[in-house]
TrEMBL record:
Keywords of this entry: DNA damage, DNA recombination, DNA repair
Gene name tied to this protein: recO
Family in the record: Belongs to the RecO family.
Protein name as annotated: DNA repair protein RecO
Stated role: Involved in DNA repair and RecF pathway recombination.
Species annotation: Zobellella aerophila
Domain DNA replication/recombination mediator RecO N-terminal: 4-74
Length: 236
């Protein structure tokens, strides 16, 4: 099977000289492949099967785990450094855990590639990540309406306070409570207006609460690496 576009989103050693490689392809979605001999010093695959390298692949097999036959770069690697690198790894984990295997998600593939390019260009990272998270929630059917009270159907009031209920939406409160969302911030999120710092904070808090159940409580390695990198920078 030939594919026009793919990215490696996860890999690990397999036996003595091979790898198990998780790829996200535009045409066939997420696929698990065996890259035989790819860890050998002279393997043509050794430098290719890395995150953020646009690839063209051929693979085949009847089961869940298929054999990778060939891989070639279709464009230069997308260069991510520092916080942008950790952010790209975070996107890979979202794809790995949220997307059903063997199901095409062509529009998600395009959004992922565009987000990587934005991160590489030096845009503000937090709004970029929040926009991708919101997009993923909508595509997977987990999105909510920021403009309506999920219980009464009334419009969200800018001066009101609201509690988030997973898989339902926002419910009006009589007064502010710990963890509540301010109505004006919800209305800004509905417009993807992520300029104000306080709205960005609300967006991040919402994303973590909304995505949490679908990540199954798994600890994300990208977050651990980001925190470790931050501590390392402070100690220098």
């Amino acid at each position: 099977m030939a594919l026009d576009a793919a990215f490696v989103i996860h890999s690990r050693p397999y036996r003595e000289t091979s790898q198990l490689v998780e790829v996200f392809t535009r045409e066939q979605g997420r696929q698990s492949l065996v890259a035989r001999g790819s860890r050998q010093p002279r393997s043509p695959l050794k430098g290719l099967l890395q995150p953020f390298v646009p690839l063209r692949l051929t693979f085949a097999g009847k089961g869940e785990l298929k054999n990778l036959h060939t891989a070639e770069a279709s464009a230069p690697a997308i260069q991510l450094k520092g916080e942008a690198l950790y952010s790209g790894l975070y996107l890979n984990e979202l794809l790995f855990y949220l997307l059903e295997a063997h199901t095409p998600f062509g529009e998600v593939f395009d959004a992922y590639q565009k987000t990587l390019s934005k991160l590489a260009s030096g845009v503000s990272i937090e709004p970029c990540l929040r926009q991708f998270e919101f997009y993923m929630l909508d595509v997977l059917g987990y999105g909510v309406d920021f403009t309506q009270d999920a219980a009464s159907g009334a419009d969200v009031e800018s001066q009101g306070w609201y509690a988030y209920q997973p898989e339902s939406g926002f419910i009006a409160l009589e007064q502010a409570e710990p963890g509540a969302f301010f109505g004006a911030h919800l209305l800004a999120l509905a417009e993807h207006d992520l300029i104000r710092p306080e709205v960005l904070v609300a967006a991040k808090r919402f994303s973590r609460q909304a995505l949490g159940p679908y990540l199954g409580g798994r600890p994300l390695r990208s977050r651990a690496l980001f925190i470790k990198g931050k501590r390392g920078n402070r100690s220098e």
